[in-house]
Amino acid sequence: MRFGLAGISHETNTFHSIPTEYENFEKSGILLRGNEIEKLYETPSTIGGFYKASKDFGFDIVPLLFANTGPLGTITSETFEKLISEILDLVESNGPFDAILMNLHGAAVSEEFHDMDGEITRRVRNLIGPEVPFGINLDMHANVSEQMILNTDITNVYQTTPHLDADETGYKCAELIYKTVEKEIIPVQSIETPPLIINIVNHNTNEDPMKSILSESRKLYSDDEVLSVSVAEGYPYSDIKKMGMSFVVITNNNMDKAKEYSKKIAKYAWAKRFEMDSSAPSIEEGLREAVSIREKPVVLMDSGDNIGAGSSADSTHILHKAREIGVSGILQTLYDPESVEKCMNKIGSMITLKVGGKSDSLHGDPIEITGTVKRYFEGEFEDLGKTHGGYRYFDAGDSVVIETEDENTLILTSKRIGNTSIQLYYSLGLDPMNYPIIVAKGVMSPRPAFEPIASKIIALDSPGVTASGLHNFNFKNIRKPMFPFEKEEASYD
């Protein structure tokens, strides 16, 4: 029994000024073909889950192509066509297959297709025909569409934020597809998409309101006909019609129940919509609170420079405010390849530089620092623990550590890298426990790395292309009325 495996995973921030090109997948992301994909088999990722299911159920995986890169702007049409054409060619030339498994994100947008993931499923389904079982596993920040549901047999979604169950949900997706091939089940899917988006600071599934919504959704498994229940939080930085939360229920050949249950959990979430709209403190408020806490380290989440959601990785807003109010002892990364190059032959020397704030006008002006270049690091490292999304291999590119005269420690990187693994600091010879304040560029994705060591985590309402305040963005294409933008007019029955 042969299952084809492929995927294109991208979380597209349509407000980002830098488009996503093919070279982003080649140079700063993951672009694996054939047996190269096997490096992901033993990782806690979707593909790791697919692989484990293949061992447990006795089917063979045929790895074709997997492409992933960090969130940036809209994917160019040329890039999308190049990737999907190669996948389709590989499916055709390596087939026939008993089933297809795909690792998608669910929030990809190309210049031509706002529902890029839906278009992927449409083209794959057209190629393999209606009888071949087809399953996809999605990120919890997916903007799931009717088209995805229409073209697949199984649509499964991570059910944790931070994303710590990619392997578990991947396994479940593969298991259900296997059972479909064996004719043990006949899956039918229903989706509900109320006009609702949740503020990013409220995405944590370990806290309410998401905790209670997920708890309610799991009650549906008391019905033996329910095969899968997925709550997708949606990706808010995407100005497209399908943006928003979604609720997918898969049953064993009972569409009435699938529709009833997806509606039931959607209504439960809708009733909690006002709890999903809470805000975060300002940068100054967060810095002052951090200083007042005696136990270290306090971790400040820079929501406006959320690298995992498509930001620039070089915001200086927090550093500027900290200097203005006299706060020091900060450990922070900044994407600044230009400054890294200037430091390469200055290890051990004092240097004055303007760092950060160079990608665009949204993330602060460059900040001038004077300090000692302490060390250089080639950038590649590995994390064997549980990380957001199940990633194991990381690359910050050429990186340097600068200890500044105003007692901050800055890590300058030549590649955009989210603060999702604490191993970055240890790889640089830094112990994060020694710093009063750590700035992590993100909101949810850094939590698995920092929750074990932080005395407190504070998410800030910082400016940027991923700011938590959604009213800062000029949405033109989303559904209207939609909560929380039109609170009084938005409705769901």
Write a brief caption for the model:
With 493 residues, the chain is of the alpha/beta class. The chain is 27% helix and 22% strand.
Low-confidence stretches: none
Largest sheet: 8 strands, mixed
What is the average of the pLDDT values? 96
**Cα distance, first to last residue?**
44 Å
What Rg, in angstroms, do the CA atoms define?
Answer: 22 Å
Number of domains: 2
Please state the structural category. Answer: alpha/beta
Shape: globular
What percent of residues are in strands?
15-25%
Helical fraction equals: 25-40%
List the helices and strands and how they pair.
Layout: E1 2-9, H1 22-27, E2 30-33, H2 46-57, E3 60-68, H3 77-94, E4 99-103, H4 116-128, E5 134-138, H5 146-151, E6 154-157, H6 166-181, E7 187-192, H7 210-218, E8 226-232, E9 246-252, H8 255-270, H9 283-292, E10 298-302, H10 317-325, E11 330-335, H11 337-343, E12 350-355, E13 367-377, E14 380-382, E15 393-395, E16 399-404, E17 409-413, H12 423-427, E18 437-440, H13 447-450, E19 456-460
Parallel strand pairs: 1-3, 1-4, 4-5, 5-6, 10-18, 10-19, 11-17, 11-18
Antiparallel strand pairs: 2-3, 7-9, 8-9, 12-13, 13-16, 14-15, 16-17
Helix pairs in contact: 2-6, 3-4
